[in-house]
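EI: anyone free to look at a 311-residue chain?
SC: sure, send it
EI:
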Amino acid sequence: MRSVALGRFAEAAEQGRRALAAAREIGYRAGEILARGGLSFAARDSEDMDHALQFARQAAQITDGAPGQTVRWSSYVLVGTLFMAGEMAAAEEVCAAGLARCREAGDVLNQSSLLPWMVLLDLHADRFADAAAHLRKGLQIAVRIGGWVELDNDLDGCGHLCAATARPAEAITIWAAYAASLARDAVVDTPEAARRREEPLRAARQALGPDRTRAAEDRGAAMSRAAAAEYALMLTAPSASQAPPSGLAHLSARERELVALVARGRTDAQIAAELYISVRTVRTHLDRIRDKTGARRRADLPRLALQARLA
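SC: here you go
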């Protein structure tokens, strides 16, 4: 799996073949599912879709002698492979059934893995409201369980949702945050995912022009993973809940600067050092910001910054 994430597909395939042989030799059914899934990942990222589908279907056919969570994981492998092969109807059928089984079993991890694929299937069918709802659910689960791979997939899906709903600045911002998140973990974007993003990204850049594109990219690249998740949740919230907090226009330049630094994950001590003021002064500023905006918790400040495009 790690070799796939790092872009070493030949190495991943060899590891998968060895793992499959070992699992079959000792009758380890869960290991066989995982090995066939890994082989499917390696094949599809090497653009060998025939073998990718073969391995994914073989993994999904193993339903006995393995833990339920591993069996449900095979649906995630098959959905993504069917989607990449252009078999959208089959992918949606498998994804819907897989999500239903996950909900019934209380399996939030596999549910979190499947939801980004359902988002892409919704967008393919122009079901934008459904895509937003599925994306929001996926983000909430990923944040709750600390599923960073799943969260990255959600961020990518959020970029596609924004691009499809005529929000080019937001699309570029969230995709820049996604790229920064991958880079922090030394994870390589898959060729297929990068190709899928090419046209909507090109259109978004063309709509904004060079200067606004650069500003959106810088804004996204500066986001922590937590801030990017907050931003994506804001973008998928019902429109009625997206109004800026009251008092936003009344912040001073220094107060807006503090809000931006909090959104970037700075502690009070780090903010004090960066602005050459005391920690006590930082806290006084933050108290005034809370009074003006109604953002009582520190966790509310990243959302405030993102709504004002300060972060």
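EI: Confidence is low (pLDDT under 50) at residues 1-7, 240-244.
SC: 👍
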